[in-house]
Amino acid sequence: MALTTLDANTALIIVDLQKGIIGLVPDTHSMGDVIKRSRALADAFRERGLPVVLVNVVGGAPGRTEQPPRQSGPRPQGWADLIPELNQQPGDIVVTKRTWGVFASTDLEAQLKALGVTQVVVTGVATGTGVEATARQAYEAGFNVTLALDAMADPRSQAHDYSIRNVFPRLGEMGTTQEIIELLRNRSA
């Protein structure tokens, strides 16, 4: 669904742009552009006093173990650190998750609803896992969902394309970083 509007109290959620993950995405999605666009969105939301949520992941959800972990042993020092390009600010909400989506294992839903947030814009990596799971969970929690398509990437290009073509249109509106920033500007003009 094309981008039409942003609610008065919309939050930005940036998923898993952390040191240990961004290097896993091949340059086919130009991680540099994804990072720049996520930062541009964060700056635009901060300028308007809207919540910015920075999410990192530190493990996996408990459960079935038929598939071996993608990484065995301890993760390197700084693996879960948010990348400095996001320019983390004291007012940002920082959430650490252990599942694909941020709402399933954290109190983010309660935090956002306490702030009166009714809509979320989601960016980050990986499109077919962390971003998609977060968008699905936000939708299921009753938030209006917007996806910044040019501010997300996935190391699996087929998963990225599938989410954009088949899943995201059912969850909410989609647009570019620039379209979202324009809607923010027009709203505050």
UniProtKB/TrEMBL annotation:
Residues 10-179 form the Isochorismatase-like domain. It comes from Rhodoferax sediminis. Transmembrane segments: none annotated. Pfam families: Isochorismatase. This is Isochorismatase family protein. It comes from the Bacteria. Keywords: Hydrolase. One of its GO terms (molecular function) is hydrolase activity. InterPro entries: Isochorismatase-like_dom, Isochorismatase-like_hydrls, Isochorismatase-like_sf.
